[in-house]
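Summary for the steering committee. The consortium agreed at its last meeting that each partner would contribute one worked example illustrating the joint modelling workflow. Our contribution is presented below. We chose a case with several input lines so that the handling of multiple components could be demonstrated. No manual editing was applied between input and output; the record is shown as generated.
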Amino acid sequence: MDEKKYQSKYKRVGQAYDRKDAREKVTGQAVFTYDMELPGMLHARCLLSPYARARIVSIDTSKAKALPGVRAVLCGEDSDILVGLYMQDKRVLAKGETRYHGDVVAAIAADDEETAERAISLLDVVYEPLQPVHDVDEALRAEILVHDDINELKHYVGVFFPQKDSNIASWNKSKKGDLDMAFEEADLVVENEFSLPAVAHAPMETHVAIVQADPYSNKVRIWSSAQSPFAIRQIMADSFGISESDVEVHIPYVGGGFGGKAGIHLEPLATLLSRAAGGLPVKVRATREQEFNQLPTRAGMRGRIKTGVTKEGKLTGVRAVYDWDSGAYADYGVNVGKTAVYSGIGPYKVDNASIDSKTIYTNKVFSTAYRGFGHLETHWSIERQMDILSQHLQIDPYEFRMMNLLKPGDQTMSGEVITESNGSPSDCLTAVVKEIGWTGRKTEEERQREWKTGKVRGKGFAMLQKAPAMPANTSTSVIMQMNGDGHVKLMIGAVDFGQGAITALAQIAAQELDIPIEHIEISAEIDTRANPYDWNTVASKLIFMGGNAVIKASREMLRKMKEIAAQALRTDPENLLHANGEVYHRHSPERRLTYKQIALGYMYPNGTGIGGPLISSGSSIADGLTNLHPETGQGYPAAVWTFGAHAIEIEVDVETGYVDVLKVASAFDIGQVINEKLVYGQICGGVVQGLGSALLEGYKFNSDEQLMNPSFTDNKIPTMKDIPGKIVPIYIENPQHNGPYGARGVGEHPMISVPSAVGNAVYDALGINFHVLPLSPEAIALGIASGKKSILCTDVDCLPGRH
Amino acid sequence: MDNVKDCSMVTEHIESGKRKVTLSLTVNGRQIVRDVDPNMTLLHFLRDNLKLFGTKEACGEGECGACTIIMNGQAVTSCIILAVEAEGAEITTVEGLAEDGKLSILQEEFISQDALQCGFCTPGFLMSTRALLDNNPNPTDAEIVEVLGGNLCRCTGYIPIMLAVRRAAERERKELGR
Ligand code: FES
Ligand code: FES
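What follows is the complete predicted structure of the assembly.
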């Protein structure tokens, strides 16, 4: 909680402006989809599967349909629509068979809640319970198929690889060098397994959508708490066989997303209900319980890492196998799995490596993107493994990492050559290690001495990296128009669901145009009829790609302004400069016009006008990316890497197992700070969310894969009581040459590797290696009591592949 | 029908069919008299009847603090209180924090410390803090944590909220002589 002291070299970029949406949010005026009511709006209820896997023998809807006030009753027989972002595998309503406890068996829209609720209880469903697929090992045996139509599922061909007659939604691979030789040449080969359970995003506003399907045309109007208006539009058009222009998506304020609201969720169900109800608007809203057990989660994951290293500490080879328990669906989950094949060895130079990453169907609640997806999970494996290797080698873990970190000229896992423009992993590590006062590992003697006091301190650190995980041709766009008063309206297609994007992009526009940020009009609310295209608001790509688009639009606007001003001032546009909302002649600055004078066209004293309203646009598409080779994983997946590191000091109570986080130092090479206050917010928020994954959170299932903790009472997320004593943010600014003002994204990164750094600190404190998350007091206390030096499993039920 | 698992706990008010009760209370300084269903929660009364949508629901079971309002000087979670329990009460919601079109010090500090991101939890945090500072103008960090530990925020990591509360307390003492 130090005073913020960042100094920017720019007038507006880098300044700590208040967020533009703050006023509405502190006065209760911000309208979320949850708050919305439309004329004639119906309310929906749905019936969820009471089994992880069951055959739906029959559904009798007659009594429900007969209830006065019921407008629509739907079940699987009524619709064959499949939806999905990367893989079309999600049935809107279960048909024939249910695949998890949250599958929608029937849905009802009625005039009011009471009627919908009563109608649900009048449904008569006969099920035949079936043996579910519990975990990834069972799934890999493929005795039972979660999707027996897996061979026919539509998917993004060439990027994802569903395996024939299996439960593998995608098997992604990468390899390079000669791994056999690498292990032979190694002085030490260490193999370990790490795992972590499914975890909830827990946005404070649960998923909610209102849809009005015009009964007289194909038109569908959607209001949704969603991150991806244009992805919803495209998927809806594709799945419903209508045109994109038939789908109108409105995004009011969104109460948190963290990836969980990317892709498509309740919109198709609300659409079917509205259609069935003659076009009345239908609101579908998840309760908190449904948010946990029906809407998707972060996948549970198991990583097996085998590493070869020389006795000096040089990595010779890494073999990694990642198995993702994606649950019943993997429409977005496959892309989480894919990240592992190009990022799953961490920011290290390894010439010989192979990675297999399988996104696997089971009969559990399904998975999707979650802040830093794929990376928190793989880094939990890699960064714990690095620590364990350094223990074996008896080399300082800082020295060991420094020896192996990527530097200019080295190649990433996918063969991309790192340059100065990528930033510096080692600058980040050095900064946090210094901040935390690292002087080497605790000796056993020191540990014993502290142990007697009941509290043992430990320090640990971990590296992190992430590039946006998105299709190679991902793009975004902005439109800019000058208002009559010389202010500028900036329209984007991406959603600001709290990350501060509209403020940061306004700063970039204000910097370029040299006008006050208050003169930039920009809204967090999106309407696909008016706002320009953006692929998906995910992946920390917005500052990078959206920022570049804003720069292009600003420069086009300046060019147009100068052309008009040149006519009016009777000179060449080349002679004109701009500053403080004015265009002026570089030699005789008294020849000048304000932006206002040319905003809608310049008017000569006699009334003649020239020019016309100033409008411009800017587009940005991921530059030079390629799909990865299906076997070797070689190619260009990363529009922009952001490297970082956390160092954490903790104190463990050896009686209770409680881990008190004393200090977190976090460094990111973000190239350029756009708004220090907003970055700080991302760091605090991400670190605390990461501590949730590290210390508290995790799904627990019963033997029928029903979620046992679908509430805040049983599925604790961090509160103010759990915040670290101190978070020290460190901004490293090695510029990205193609980034806006040199900037890189950092929205997701603060969450990645927080669990690994805590795990490493726990080793420093206790001399025990934990391989499983969360590091809850019970897990730690049991680990201590076991007397073992490696804890491979703490809670049998919550782990993928451990039944 | 033990097969049937109703996927929806009650999140919107469902009429009980019982005879309505006349309720009178003061909300944000305004005198209100309404007939209400005796089973209606105070949260639904504020949102559905009075159309004060600033107060949010994020769990509906008293676990998250998003629905916090001030009733007779105390912060309460309005999702687990019945409207009829507020008979004669003085209630303040987030809409009542700014006066004469001017933001309160507390709101200003939430903005300047960036104590909000998505903003969904913000009304609840503002009201919990308001009640805290009304009862204790100079809280220690431990007292702040004790009170705000009942409000969940998934975005901010709480530290900016902590900073905002500290500053607001300090400024209120100085500027309002609390
Ligand atoms: S909504 Fe009332 S405490 Fe969560
Ligand atoms: S600001 Fe989003 S939950 Fe608190």
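Chain B touches chain A through 66 residues (CB under 8 Å). Chain B has five helices and six strands.
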